[in-house]
Structure formats: C-alpha cells, structure tokens
From TrEMBL:
Coiled coil: none annotated. The chain crosses the membrane at residues 46-75, 87-107, 113-130, 137-164, 184-205, 361-380, 386-410, 422-442. This is Glycosyltransferase RgtA/B/C/D-like domain-containing protein. Keywords: Membrane, Transmembrane, Transmembrane helix. The keyword DNA repair does not apply. It comes from Hymenobacter sedentarius.
Length: 455
C-alpha cells in the first residue's frame, strides 16, 4: 500500500507540490476557520485539517493516495487473483495509473478523488466482496465519508443504488442470487443517511441545516446556459416582478460567467445570498411548468452525453500565484510551504497535458471497445460470468450518474468527468489481465495422462 500510494502521488512529486485549483482556497479556509462555505460542504476541509497532522499539506494528498492505493490493490486481488505476486500487483497498478492519469487527481488538494473512492467501495459492498462484517462496515464508512465530501457525490451515489435496485427488481437479480438484498439495503441506507448527516454536520459548525446555501445560484446558472432561463424571462417579465428582469439583456452565455464574473446578473444583484429567495421561486416555477419539460429533458440528455466525452486531464491546473485565493490560504495554512508552492511546475506554467491526454483518451476508447466486444462475445460472457457483469454495471452506473449530475446540474467540464472516467479503463485492464492469464494457463496446462482399461 505504501508503494502504491507513492505511485499515485507521482503527479504531486513531479509538480513539486500538491496540485491546486481555484476551489482549493475555499476548502483550506474551511479547514483553518471551521466555517461552512456557502457553495460546498465543510467535510473536505475537516479532512484536510486532520490529515495534515499539523505539519504539511503533503500529508493530505498522501493519505488520499494511501486510501485509493489500498482500494486499487484490493480490486486487483479480488478480480485478478492470478496476479498473485505483490510485485506483479504493483506493476499492474502502475500500468493502470500510467494509462489513466489518475495520479493527477489523487495528488490534488481537492475532494474530487473521493467520487471514485465512494463508487469503488459501494461496488465492493454491493457485490458482496467483504471478507468480514468489520470490513464491510469499513467500506460503508468510507462510502459515507466520500458522499459527504460533495453534494454531487450524494446525488451520484443515490442514482447508483436506486438504479441498481430498479434493475434488480425488473431483472430478478435478487431472486436469482446475483445481488444480495441485504447488501443493497445496507448500501442504500448509508447513501441515504448522508443526506441527513451532511446538513447536521453543517448545523453543528454554524452553517445551518442545509446541504449548500448556493445551490439555487448554481441551478440558475445552468438554466441560463441552457437558454431555459431566457425563455422563462421572455414570458414572465411582462407580468412578473423579478429583479432578474432588469438583467434580461445582459445574461452571459455560460454558467461559469454567470456564477463568478463580477459583472454577472448574480453578482450585480448582491450574490447568491441576496438572490436565493427569488432564484428558488423561479426554479420551482420552471419545475412545475410542463411547457419547459421538453427543453429540460433535451438539455439533460445532451449535457450528459457531452460530459461523457470530456475526460481530459489538466482542467483547472493553471498557475495560482500571488494575490490568488489558493496562494493566500496555503500561506495561512503553512507559511513555510509557500516557497515550495510558488516553485512548483504548476505555478511556473510548465505543466503540459497534450501527450498525456492522447494516452488517456486512447485508454478510454479502447476500454469502451473492449467492453462492447466482450459483451458481444459468448466466450467472454461465459468466462466473465454474472459477478463481472455486475461490477461493470455498478461502475458504469457511477460514471453515467456522475455525467448526468455534473453535466445537467453544474457544468460540462473535463475535471468533473475525468475524476471518475478512469475507473473504466482501469477495471477493464484488471479483468483483461485475469482473462489472458486464465487463457494462458489453460493453453499450457499439461495434457492429461491417457487412461487404459482392460478390454
């Protein structure tokens, strides 16, 4: 696990400091001051404060890599048992990290890596791959922690367990023993508990009993980008008394500008706290009006499909030097690490992802093709069996649900999908390795001795 964690920490070591994004400062601020951010949970900030051990931000990404490394090794041992030697397991893990670029997420001071961690732990529980009750409890606790890291995780995990439950009910998986009802019930209970635990946690830290105070602003930004908000205002501003009507001709083209530009309608009107009540009213009215349903359905479908193709690395990993929020908060968190932070390749704009993304996209496409060919091959289906199909179903649901949640409700961005998309090529690599080793062993097995019987 230690060696695996170092492999996963490669990107941070290469960079010279843990990677940061524009959101890192907000998470570090919540760690420093125990305050609940308006637009995201406090959970990752608490994790960062504990994992830093009062010494260094390096420990935060190290513990992320340690958790993920343990999970990846467990998947190799569970689904490729013929890869028995520890050195071979580490080599296969390293190949998977090289092909997928997951290190560029596990080395970030961001909660994004906990989305695939949660999906992997849920899959182990749902497939009944826990070797004891204590281990199953540990996987469920880790899944709950991952769900609390971001509200999008709670929604993604909920879609996975309910989607799987619907498939089990319609396909008779419970009655045929393909999926144990108790495992599904435990996973579902833990995911649903997160919807109560997170607002309770926020209430305990003075943030109120809420998942996110900025949710209406994010949803409004998405409605604006899709053009649905403009349709609504064109219809309602003649008779309604919405403050947003004053900015009808100044609506930006994309959700990012709507949320963060200083001259956007949101910020000109006083920000998400000042606009929350009106935005909630508009969102509710759109949700209750069937005339908008075709547009909502069309936008959801195309945003999800677009998000599934956005799996490139490097999104958001630009320099954040002096007078930026990450710079201020890294300095406030650990002043003596500022020199190392400023000396990193990221902050000298020396990171290039062109060749890496060629490899990542190739691995993603090959994994999709291998999955399709495997499903169409009777021999592969006989070898793989129901457990492998269920594993791919759970993780496939997770990747699709992440695309739906982030694409339809937030933004179509590489960072939001690439954080989970790497699971597909990694798992296909593990399964393909086991299949090839099984074929090799059968091909080179000694022929059985002939048996002679007296006539």
């Amino acid at each position: 696990m230690l060696l695996a964690s170092l492999v996963l920490l490669y990107a941070g070591l290469y960079n010279g400091f843990p990677l940061v994004t524009s959101d890192t400062g907000t998470y570090l601020n919540s760690a420093l001051n125990f305050t609940v951010p308006d637009d995201r949970p406090i959970t990752y900030g608490l994790f960062a404060r504990a994992a830093a051990l009062g010494f260094s931000l390096w420990f935060v990404v190290f513990f992320q890599c340690l958790i993920l490394g343990g999970l990846l090794l467990r998947y190799i041992r569970e689904f490729a048992p013929r890869v028995a030697h520890p050195a071979a397991q580490l080599a296969l893990l390293t190949l998977g990290v090289w092909a997928t670029g997951v290190s560029w997420f596990s080395s970030q001071l961001m909660p994004d890596i906990f989305t695939p961690i949660g999906l992997m732990t849920l899959a182990l529980v749902l497939l009944g791959r826990s070797r004891s009750g204590l281990e199953r409890a540990a996987w469920l606790a880790l899944a709950l922690l991952a769900g609390l890291m971001h509200t999008s995780n709670l929604l993604t995990f909920s879609l996975v367990v309910f989607g799987l439950g619907l498939g089990a009910w319609r396909g008779g998986w419970f009655s045929r023993g393909l999926l144990r009802r108790r495992d599904w019930q435990l996973a579902t209970a833990v995911v649903l508990a997160g919807w109560l635990v997170l607002p309770t946690l926020h209430l305990a830290f003075g943030g109120g009993f809420t998942l996110s105070r900025a949710s209406p602003a994010f949803l409004m930004a998405r409605l604006n980008e899709s053009g649905i908000l403009e349709r609504f205002l064109d219809r309602e501003c003649a008779t309604g008394h919405y403050a947003l009507c004053a900015y009808r001709d100044k609506l930006p083209n994309d959700a990012v500008t709507f949320m963060w530009d200083g001259n956007s309608p949101l910020n000109l009107a006083g920000g998400w706290n000042a606009t929350r009540a009106e935005y909630q009213h508009i969102i509710g009215k759109i949700a209750r009006s069937p005339r908008y349903y075709p547009y909502l359905a069309s936008e959801t479908a195309q945003a999800t499909l677009r998000q599934l193709t956005h799996v490139g690395l490097g999104d958001g990993l630009t320099p954040f030097r002096e007078n930026t929020n990450p710079y201020w908060k890294v300095g406030e968190f650990r002043t003596y690490e500022l020199k190392e932070y400023l000396s990193s390749m990221q902050n000298h704009n020396l990171l290039s992802f062109s060749s890496l993304n060629e490899r990542v996209y190739l691995a993603y496409v090959l994994a999709l093709l291998a999955g399709l060919l495997g499903l169409s091959s009777p021999a592969v289906r006989r070898w793989a069996g129901a457990p492998t199909a269920l594993l791919l179903t759970v993780l496939g649901l997770g990747i699709g649900a992440n695309a739906l949640v982030t694409g339809a409700l937030a933004n179509v961005l590489d960072r939001l999908q690439a954080r989970t998309a790497w699971l597909l090529p990694f798992v296909v690599l593990v399964l393909a390795t086991e299949m090839l080793l099984t074929w090799w062993a059968a091909r080179h097995a000694p022929a059985p001795e002939p048996v002679f019987t007296p006539e």
